[in-house]
Design a protein that fits this description.
single chain, two-stranded antiparallel sheet, mainly beta, disordered N terminus, Porin
């Protein structure tokens, strides 16, 4: 099984996605034509900051085939950019097959896995890079197999096996061993008063030590309740075994609230606070950060929002403002940000000096 999720397999998916034979599936006289859905998203992005200017064009076509309980989804990511840290021009974005029944769902391939009620400072951001400031909601996927059972009373049980993931996922500090499986699962249990979730994940880490395989064990707990005000928490605890890698253990905690004020069309407010505790041998460190987000619909088409993060230990503040217009198939986004100058020793960012910076961004998104 370890040879299935290899770089060779990923190259095969890329070649399959751009193979001219796929055009035959779209022919009007094809028996499969009525079972195909083709859509896509094109994004033009211009970012200018105090240090650089980045131009990016991205197109993600999506081919969705379905028959009875089986669904196949193929999506490549084509990116043109002048950034020196640019990803590959052509790479798979999604490539999975799904089988569903009344209560079960099985999905295998390159897919998105995310969970937890957090919105900004997500302790349970284990596998995705979702950004609340990005209207496209795009994120990299993970290679693996996932099963999910959902009962009639909304209780659900997840299980997954991941393999062949070379890059860092979510908030990971160390890479996984792509040739060994990662195993995890999740239980979601609504009680009526609060929706609870418990998640675990075990993954081997990439290492040159042949004598022992370092592993990371994670345990997550989360809950969401709404009593006029939405309230939630997330906890993620991890420990590294059989390895000198640092930190040996890490605990992330998130507390959040949201509320819509009856002002005009409705002023939406989200606030979150995150703490981090790390242990490196006998050295225990703690840190915290907070964030707040406002959103207000000016009209049926226009929305303005503000996103503010603050790091108390360094007195670092980042203010982000945006205006967005949403049409039938087009999203126009203009944003600007300002960050203060700081020198600090932080568990989150390490010991360094960051100069103050500012920037603007223009994004045009077309969906078809």
């Amino acid at each position: 099984m370890s040879t299935f999720f290899t770089a060779k397999t990923k190259r095969f998916f890329i070649k399959a996605l751009v193979n001219p034979s796929l055009i035959l599936l779209l022919a009007p006289n094809s028996k499969l034509f009525s079972q195909l859905d083709f859509r896509g998203q094109a994004v033009a992005n211009l970012s200018m900051s105090s240090f650089s200017t980045t131009n990016t064009l991205r197109y993600i076509p999506e081919l969705d085939w379905f028959q009875n309980d089986i669904n196949l989804n193929l999506s490549p990511n084509l990116t043109f950019t002048n950034s020196t840290n640019a990803p590959d021009f052509l790479r798979p974005y999604r490539a999975w097959v799904r089988y569903t029944t009344t209560y079960w769902e099985w999905k295998a391939g390159l897919q998105k896995i995310n969970f937890g009620p957090g919105k900004i400072l997500r302790s349970l951001q284990w596998f995705d890079q979702l950004d609340p400031r990005d209207p496209t909601n795009q994120t990299t996927g993970v290679w693996g197999i996932k099963g999910k059972y959902a009962s009639s009373n909304n209780h659900s049980l997840w299980g997954w096996v991941l393999m062949g993931n070379d890059d860092l996922k979510g908030k990971e500090i160390f890479k996984s061993d792509p040739d060994l499986p990662e195993i995890g699962g999740r239980i979601e249990y609504p009680t009526g008063m609060i929706d609870l979730g418990v998640t675990s994940h075990l993954r081997p880490l990439n290492s040159t030590n042949d004598d022992s395989i370092p592993v990371e064990l994670r345990l997550g707990i989360d809950g969401y309740a709404e009593y006029g005000i939405g309230m939630w928490f997330e906890n993620s605890s991890s420990v590294i075994l059989n390895s000198p890698l640092q930190p040996e253990s890490m605990v992330l905690n998130t507390l959040g609230i949201d509320y819509t004020f009856g002002i005009g069309s409705g002023l939406y407010l989200t606030g979150e606070w995150m703490s981090m505790i790390t242990q490196m041998k006998d050295d225990v460190r703690s840190d915290n950060i907070c964030a707040i987000m406002f959103s207000y619909p000016v009209s049926w088409l226009d929305n303005i929002s503000s996103f503010i993060t603050y790091h108390p230990k360094s007195d670092l503040a980042i203010v982000y403002l945006s205006w967005q217009r949403t049409l039938d198939n087009v999203i126009i986004l203009f944003s600007a940000y300002k960050a203060t100058e700081v020198s600090f020793d932080s568990t989150f960012l390490g010991t360094q000096t960051l100069p103050g910076s500012s920037g603007i961004r223009f994004m045009l998104t077309f969906n078809h």
